[in-house]
C-alpha cells in the first residue's frame, strides 16, 4: 500500500451519543480527551454563577446550558434540577436527543493501561453498552462476550443470549471514589490496581454508582437517571449519583435490563476536600442505612412496563416509606415526579414500553 | 546482618489445612508445587483400580485412600462416594480433621502473574478465607479488604464488617473450564487474561463452581461440599462441582456465609477430550435448565441453623421437585442423606449451629 490514510476512522455511535459534562470552570481538561471526544457532540451544563463565561477549547462541537437556560427551558419545573452540585448534569440527559449518553467529570483525565497505552474510555463504554448483560447467573471468567472469553462449564445455555445493557459504570485510577470518612482516614491512598474486567451486576444486587465516568442507553433507562435534589438549599450532597444508581438498578431489575461495571478506567486527578465532603455527606451516611434496605426490598407491579411508570411508582414508595426518615424525602419524591414530567415535555415522542429489555415499537 | 536464614517461614495455617487431590496417576505434578505444598498435609483420593500403585514424590506428608479404603471405612455408606469420577475427592473432605481444605486437580500447575512471578495459589486462597465477604452490597473496587482498596463512597457503613468467608473459588489460566459444546466450537481458545481481582458472589446469585482450584472452611461449610453421584454407573459426569456449588451457595446465603471468586490463578495444562465430555455432560446440559430455577427459588426454613440440617432439608426438596425431572435425582437425594450421615459418623464432634456466619460454641 502506498501511503497511509490520514483520515480518522468514524468513531462508534458518532451521531447517536452525547457527552454530558457538568462544570464550573474552563474546560481545559478536554485537550487531553481531544483524540477521543472531538468527533462527538458535547452537552455542557454550567453550574453556579450563570454570568461566568466558561471557555471550551477550539474545535469541539458543543451546546452549553447555564442556570438561566435551565430556568427558561423548564420554567417552574426547573426546581427539580439541583444547583451548586454536579447533580445538575442530569439536565443534560434530558435535553439530549441521542440514544446514548456518556458523562464525565472535568477532573478526569485519560488513564493508561498497564502497557502504557492511552485508554479510550468512551470506546470501552460503547462496547459495554452494545454487548448484552448477564444478571441472572454469575460467569466466573467475567464478561463472556469479550474476545478470548466465554461462558464457563455449568452456565445454563438458556441464559447465554443475555439481556440488553442499559448502564456501563467505569472506574478510576489514582484518586478512588471514597466517602469523607475514608478520605480522612486514608488521605494518601491511591488506586493503582488495573483490574482487566467488565462484569454484570447480578439481579437483586445494589451497588454504589458513581457519576464520574458513566454511560447509559438513554432510550432504555434515561428517565430513571435523575440525580435528585442536592447542593444549594438541600440538606445533602454527594449522594446524587448513588440515588440515581439505586433507583435505576431497581427499575433495570424489574424491566429486564442489564448494568455493567469495571472497565474503562479514567485518571481521577484530584481528591475533593474531605472536610467539605463530610458536611455534604453526613446526613446521607446515616440515611443510607435506611435507604439501602428500602431499595433492596422495593418491588414494582407488573403493569409498570415503562421506565416512567416505574419511576412514578418508586416516587410513591419513597414518599410513603422514606418520608418517615426525613421530610427531605417528601420533597425529593415530588421532585422525582416533576423530573419525569419535564422529561416527557422535552421528549414528546412519548413513553416506551420495555418488556424483558426490549423496547416495544 | 551476617548470613541469611535458610529456614523457610512457617506457612499460613500449616496445621489447620489439608490439601485434597483426586487422582488416577503418579503425582509428578507435585514437584512444581513443592515450595508451596511441602509443609502441608496431603489427602490423596485414588480413583479407579485400587490395585494400581500411585507414586508420590519424596518428601511430601500424605495419606492415600483407594476404593478399597473408602469401602472399608464407610461400609454400605460408601455408595454415596462416586467411582471413576473426580467427584470422589469429597471423601477427602470427610476424612480430614482440619479446619480448612484446599483441593486441586493433578493437571493444574503453578501459574505466573503478569510480572513473571510464580503465584502461590494456596496463600491467596488462605487470604480469601481469612478475610470477610460482602454479599449484601457490591463494592465496585472489588475486595475492600485488600491492600490499597477499601469500600467506596455510598457503601453502607453497617455492612463494612462483612461476614465470614466459607469458600474461595480460584480461576485458571491457559485451558479455561469450558463445557463440551464450547470446547468443540473453540478448540484453540486459551485464557490469557489475568484479572487482578477477588470478589464476593452476591447473596441470591448462583455461579458455576469449579472443583479444580478451590478452598473452603470445612468447619463452616464442609457437610455441604458433597460432589454428588457421578461417573461409574451414573447417567452424568462433570456436574459434581456444579452440584456442590449450587447446594453450597443456597446454604451459605441462608446461614450468612460468604463465597469469593477470582484470584488465585493456577495453570491448567490440558483440555480433556470434548467428545468424552459431551457424553458425560449431555444430560446435565438439559437438566441444568431445570436445576438452576430450582436452586434460585429454593428457600430454607429458619430453624435450619446447621449445615447438616440445611443439607437434609435441601435433599428433601431435591426429591420432591427434581424427582420429576429424572429418577436419578431420587437416587441423588438419598445419597445426599447418606453423605451427611457418613460425615457425622466420621466427625462425631457433632453439628455446629451457624447463625449469621458465626459458629455457636
UniProtKB/TrEMBL annotation, chains A, B:
Predominant subcellular localization, coarse grouping: Golgi
Annotated catalysed reactions: UDP-beta-L-arabinofuranose = UDP-beta-L-arabinopyranose
Cellular localisation: Golgi apparatus
InterPro entries: Nucleotide-diphossugar_trans, RGP, RGP_fam
List of glycosylated residues: 153
E.C. numbers: 5.4.99.30
Gene Ontology molecular function: any one: UDP-arabinopyranose mutase activity
GO biological process: cell wall organization; plant-type cell wall organization or biogenesis; UDP-L-arabinose metabolic process
Gene Ontology CC annotation, any one: cytosol
UniProt entry keywords in alphabetical sequence: Cell wall biogenesis/degradation, Glycoprotein, Golgi apparatus, Isomerase
Known role: Probable UDP-L-arabinose mutase involved in the biosynthesis of cell wall non-cellulosic polysaccharides.
Family designation: Belongs to the RGP family.
Protein name, entry field: UDP-arabinopyranose mutase
Species this protein is from: Prunus armeniaca
Amino acid at each position: 500500500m502506498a501511503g497511509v490514510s490520514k483520515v480518522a476512522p468514524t468513531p462508534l455511535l458518532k451521531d447517536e451519543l452525547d457527552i454530558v459534562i457538568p462544570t464550573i470552570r474552563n474546560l481545559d481538561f478536554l485537550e487531553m480527551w481531544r483524540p477521543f471526544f472531538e468527533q462527538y457532540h458535547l452537552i455542557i451544563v454550567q453550574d453556579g454563577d450563570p454570568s461566568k463565561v466558561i471557555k471550551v477549547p477550539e474545535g469541539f462541537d458543543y451546546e452549553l446550558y447555564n442556570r438561566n437556560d435551565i430556568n427558561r427551558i423548564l420554567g417552574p419545573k426547573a426546581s427539580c434540577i439541583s444547583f451548586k452540585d454536579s447533580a445538575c448534569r442530569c439536565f443534560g440527559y434530558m435535553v439530549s436527543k441521542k440514544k446514548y449518553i456518556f458523562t464525565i467529570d472535568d477532573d478526569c483525565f485519560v488513564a493508561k493501561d498497564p502497557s502504557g497505552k492511552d485508554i479510550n474510555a468512551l470506546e470501552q463504554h460503547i462496547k459495554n453498552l452494545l454487548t448484552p448483560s448477564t444478571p441472572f447467573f454469575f460467569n466466573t471468567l467475567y464478561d463472556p462476550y469479550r474476545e478470548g472469553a466465554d461462558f464457563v462449564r455449568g452456565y445454563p445455555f438458556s441464559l447465554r443470549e443475555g439481556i440488553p445493557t442499559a448502564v456501563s459504570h467505569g472506574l478510576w485510577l489514582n484518586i478512588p471514589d471514597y466517602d469523607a470518612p475514608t478520605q480522612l482516614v486514608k488521605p494518601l491512598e491511591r488506586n493503582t490496581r488495573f483490574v482487566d474486567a467488565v462484569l454484570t451486576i447480578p439481579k437483586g444486587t445494589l451497588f454504589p454508582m458513581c457519576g464520574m465516568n458513566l454511560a447509559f442507553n438513554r432510550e432504555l433507562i434515561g428517565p430513571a437517571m435523575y440525580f435528585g435534589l442536592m447542593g444549594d438549599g438541600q440538606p445533602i450532597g454527594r449522594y446524587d449519583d448513588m440515588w440515581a444508581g439505586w433507583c435505576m438498578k431497581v427499575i433495570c431489575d424489574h424491566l429486564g435490563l442489564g448494568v455493567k461495571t469495571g472497565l474503562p478506567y479514567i485518571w481521577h486527578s484530584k481528591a475533593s476536600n474531605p472536610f467539605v465532603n463530610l458536611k455534604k455527606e453526613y446526613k446521607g451516611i446515616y440515611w443510607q442505612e435506611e435507604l439501602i434496605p428500602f431499595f433492596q426490598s422495593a418491588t414494582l407491579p407488573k403493569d409498570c412496563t415503562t421506565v416512567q411508570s416505574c419511576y412514578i411508582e418508586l416516587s410513591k414508595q419513597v414518599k410513603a416509606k422514606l418520608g418517615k426518615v426525613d421530610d427531605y424525602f417528601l420533597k425529593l419524591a415530588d421532585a422525582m415526579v416533576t423530573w419525569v414530567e419535564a422529561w416527557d415535555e422535552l421528549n414528546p415522542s412519548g413513553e416506551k414500553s420495555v418488556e424483558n429489555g426490549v423496547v416495544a415499537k
